[in-house]
Amino acid sequence: MTPFLDVSPEVRDAVHDGRPVVALESTIFTHGLPRPRNVEVAEEAEQIVRSGGAVPATIGVVRGRPTVGLTTEQILALSHDDDVLKAGIRELPIGAVNGRNAGTTIAATSQLAHAAGITVFATGGLGGVHHGAETSFDESADLVALARNPVVMISSGAKAVLNVHATLERFETLSVPVVGYGTDSYPGFYVRESGFRVAHRLDAPEEVAGVYRAQRALGLPSALLVANPVPQEEQLDPSLLQGVIERAWAAVDEEKVEGQQVTPFLLDFIRRATGGASLDANVALYRSNVRLATEVAGAIAAGVPTSLVEAA
Ligand code: PSU
Ligand code: MN
């Protein structure tokens, strides 16, 4: 282990023993959700993992140090820090000098999870290609990170604010497999359907474990993206979303929001424009992803029946 990466003893032991561990990101509670809901969600996610028999590994940067397996005190410190940074992979080494707290994005979290030997990671929605990327070049670093960090990534699709079509094309270019979980449609984050289809569908945690194992056996470097739609009764009323995303992007232009601020700004705009309903959907889909990730981590740790791998 490098001297620049702290791994909690609980996570280190679980990884060493081959017990199930689920990585959780921190940008979702430092930048993605408003207070006080952010802390509740972060703590609830850990409880869901524990009650499913796995060890949670919330990942973030604590006073400059990339840390895998944050303590409750560290989660609270990051959640309440008014100056908390948002760290992608390229910000990780900067911490060595600035000593600041940071939430880690999916890109940085997948990198650190893999470095610590963790194979399953749950989040809400993936970063991807932004509207207008053909001139702004604004694509999330999540894309490239998922091409080279071999984790199972459970999400509810790319964030609704993105150019989903372009994002799916980029995953194809980067040879990152995308499967629907219990669905043939690519989910639309707050809603069950994005309007795009997935080419492959899996219906059980053991099947996810089987594909994961085949990826590793083939020496493929990328993540496995498991797209798990928000539960039907908790999705955002699709009609509420109508026009909101266009207005959110117009506000980005008008207020000249740039770089790392764009995604948190859009999510917050939508939350206000939907009277908080998008936040409820976001929390619901995250819970459901954490639950599925816990089952998948259990299936991977248990080993996959050979018959399943042979049949694939
Ligand atoms: N999903 C959520 N809420 C979030 C994010 C994802 O439900 O806040 C965060 C993730 O950390 C993701 C980041 O990696 O947004 C993407 O930001 P950007 O587009 O700047 O790469
Ligand atoms: Mn960006």
TrEMBL record:
<dbReference type="GO" id="GO:0016798">
    <property type="term" value="F:hydrolase activity, acting on glycosyl bonds"/>
</dbReference>
<keyword id="KW-0456">Lyase</keyword>
<comment type="similarity">
    <text>Belongs to the pseudouridine-5'-phosphate glycosidase family.</text>
</comment>
<feature type="binding site">
    <location>
        <position position="138"/>
    </location>
    <ligand>
        <name>Mn(2+)</name>
    </ligand>
</feature>
<feature type="binding site">
    <location>
        <position position="86"/>
    </location>
    <ligand>
        <name>substrate</name>
    </ligand>
</feature>
<protein>
    <recommendedName>
        <fullName>Pseudouridine-5'-phosphate glycosidase</fullName>
        <ecNumber>4.2.1.70</ecNumber>
    </recommendedName>
</protein>
<keyword id="KW-0464">Manganese</keyword>
<feature type="binding site">
    <location>
        <begin position="140"/>
        <end position="142"/>
    </location>
    <ligand>
        <name>substrate</name>
    </ligand>
</feature>
<feature type="active site" description="Proton donor">
    <location>
        <position position="25"/>
    </location>
</feature>
<keyword id="KW-0326">Glycosidase</keyword>
<feature type="active site" description="Nucleophile">
    <location>
        <position position="159"/>
    </location>
</feature>
<dbReference type="InterPro" id="IPR007342">
    <property type="entry name" value="PsuG"/>
</dbReference>
<keyword id="KW-0479">Metal-binding</keyword>
<dbReference type="Pfam" id="PF04227">
    <property type="entry name" value="Indigoidine_A"/>
</dbReference>
<comment type="function">
    <text>Catalyzes the reversible cleavage of pseudouridine 5'-phosphate (PsiMP) to ribose 5-phosphate and uracil. Functions biologically in the cleavage direction, as part of a pseudouridine degradation pathway.</text>
</comment>
<keyword id="KW-0378">Hydrolase</keyword>
<comment type="subunit">
    <text>Homotrimer.</text>
</comment>
<dbReference type="InterPro" id="IPR022830">
    <property type="entry name" value="Indigdn_synthA-like"/>
</dbReference>
